[in-house]
Amino acid sequence: MNAERILAWTPAAIVFDCDGTLMDSESHWVEARELVLHSYGVAPDAEFAARARGVHYTECGRLMAEAADQPQLAEEMTEQLLECFRKLVAENPVTMPGAPELVRSVARFAPLAVASNCPRDVVESSLTQAGLLELIAYVVVPDEAADLLPKPYPDVYLAAARLCGADPADCLAVEDSRCGIEAAVQAGLRVLGVGPQPSAELAALVDLWVPTLAEPRLVAWAERLGPQRAAS
Prior knowledge:
It is a single chain. By secondary structure, the protein is an alpha/beta fold. The chain has 2 domains: about 5-25 and about 95-230, HAD superfamily/HAD-like (Rossmann fold), CATH 3.40.50; about 25-90. About 50% of the residues lie in helices and about 10% in strands. It contains 11 helices and 6 strands. The protein has helices spanning about 5, 25-40, 45-50, 55-65, 75-90, 100-105, 120-130, 155-165, 180-185, 200-205, 215-230; strands at about 15, 110-115, 140, 170-175, 190-195, 210. It has a 6-stranded parallel sheet, with helices on both faces.
């Protein structure tokens, strides 16, 4: 890691992941997966949880069908997963610690985008309920029609940078999962990782890792850059 690549730098644009980064919806995905799998008599273990974290929901449905030893039900289980997840998010939308404050702070000096593997309606509705969507210039999700593949492919990050009018190398990605970090690295963005202490292998992929978006160094960085950009 090289924290100064972020803390001594002003990005041309910032691209956030949504689940587990801005919104505390990773717990909703976990609960939705467990509820669907339990209905098929399957209790997911830690290995399954690690494989399913951050992947596109269609891939998650495929993994669930494999875990249930019924691969032919992948599409059906994907629909059940989405239905359950949407219900849980609608009942209890929660932001991650420091996320609303950081988004409002960095919106003063850089265009913002969200790049997510979630369905667009889920991303936009949860950000709306959190009062953050109005600060996000673009929401980019995998799209077959636009030939955008899901993370860990770099497509959504490349598209977000392009929409923001910035070179990927001048953009910052904010991510919490290996899947998303790999996508951002492949796209050429600098990467801020957030969450529990990562493995050494994952830490080596990012420029800076913070436990939450309320980390004091990050808050001070954002607060310092806002007035500087306004003055310039």
